Amino acid sequence: MAEETENIDNILKEHIPAEKLKEVNRILYGGAFSPLDLPGEATKLASEHDFELQGYAIGAKPEQRRQPKIVRIGVIQNKIVLPTTAPIKDQVASLHNRISEIVEAAALCGVNIICFQEAWNMPFAFCTRQKHPWTEFAESAEDGPTTKFCQELAKRYNMVIISSILERDAVHSETLWNTSVVISNSGAVMGKSRKNHIPRVGDFNESTYYMEGNTGHQVFETQFGRVAINICFGRHHPLNWLAYGLNGAEIVFNPSATVGSLSEPLWPIEARNAAIANSYFTAAINRVGTESFPDEFTSGDGKKAHHDFGHFYGSSYIAAPDGSRTPGLSRTHDGLLVTELDLNLCRQVRDRWCLQMTGRYDMYGEVLTQAAARDFKPNIIKE
To answer: Alpha carbon of 258 to those of 79, 223, 255, 289, 347: distances in Å?
Structure first.
């Protein structure tokens, strides 16, 4: 297999003269972000533990009646550590250890809110359609070992943690869900947000394991800002993004697991477009690496059976309501992206573009209600 491209930004740097690269970056990414000066201790930790560390700041204009509302967020992308054939307890422990290394660096960088990738404490085995042993990774969202691990980190570093897991819901017949747990910087579990949209495309046969979530579009008011979680496939649904905005989100995290052959052309667009359309910040997070499973599986598309479903291309980034975004993390390596945001930018963009004021929500609501009815007839005018 050909070696994966490391990073589009590196290609641009290699082939575009420095005096022109600044203008290229302005066109590609917008002009609002600037490099963030990160502590040497964090940089050293990243080097020692072999993960990429990037930092940027996205500011807002000074206001006379509001102080800046500054928050530092972090997103982590990572490979699995052990092969998928290793004992489950060892796989989970290895990922807990890996994440703790990167979270330590995030704390040194002053991160207030951090989000991990989708199903971060396990291989993304939902391509296989096999129930065992993969369902054994499922845990309680309230008091499972991964949640307890995250609670300890949250208290230690005064950091809000968003942890996406395969949830085992003991109260409701031990049903499985794809769930993000929100843990306050106090260490308390604030709540959970379940995946609203479940893919049935290519190898992503996730409805074999869990169905669409039932927690709606909750927004969590943390000490550092109002956050929401739009898990993975929900990023393809504009109305899903919209609902979090209507409920007052300032930052919407999109923990994901997606591969290049399926979605990479969409990746730089969707979270960025959502930030623009809804006047909030978005954080797109994808895992990295290729995960191989012991038994072959097929996708129902006529292709030969295979042991993996492609390369997870990372490329995690942050997008702002003014349309700017940070460069992405690597396509191939573990990484931590730290971004300092001024949440005042959300209202400033709303005032400038008036997208919420000019939105016709009454009209949209009416047509959606009609379209959901069994007797719906499209409003098509014919000669």
So the answer is: 13, 31, 10, 11, 32
**The residue type at 134:** W
Are the CB atoms for 255 and 179 separated by under 8 Å? no
User: Whose CA is closest to 78, among 329, 340, 259?
Assistant: 329
DSSP state at residue 213: -
Crossing angle of helices 238-246 and 267-278, in 10° steps, is 30
* R_g of the chain, CA atoms, integer Å: 21
The span from the CA of 329 to the CA of 316, in Å, is: 5
In whole angstroms, give the CA distance from residue 143 to residue 135. 17
Q: Please tell me the predicted confidence (pLDDT) of residue 261.
A: 80
CA atoms within 13 A on the CB side of 122: 22
Residues with a catalytic annotation lie at 118, 195, 232
Q: How far is CA 7 from the centre of its chain?
A: 19
How far is it, in rounded angstroms, from Cα 108 to Cα 93?
23
Q: In whole angstroms, give the CA distance from residue 231 to residue 137.
A: 18
Asked whether the CA dihedral 154, 157, 162, 165 is positive or negative, the reply is negative
> What is the C-alpha to C-alpha distance for residues 16 and 383, in angstroms, rounded to an integer?
55
pTM score: 0.97
Torsion of CA 242, 246, 247, 248, to 10 degrees: 100
Q: How far apart are CA 344 and CA 58, in angstroms?
A: 11
Cα–Cα distances in Å, from 383 out to 376, 378, 380?
A: 21, 15, 10
> How many Cα atoms sit within 13 Å of 133 on the Cβ side?
12
CA 80 to chain centre: 17
Compute the distance between CA of residue 160 and CA of residue 151 in angstroms, rounded to an integer: 9
pLDDT along the chain (383 residues), means of 10: 80 92 90 89 98 97 98 98 98 98 98 98 93 96 98 98 98 97 98 96 86 97 98 97 98 96 93 98 97 89 86 97 96 98 98 96 97 96 95
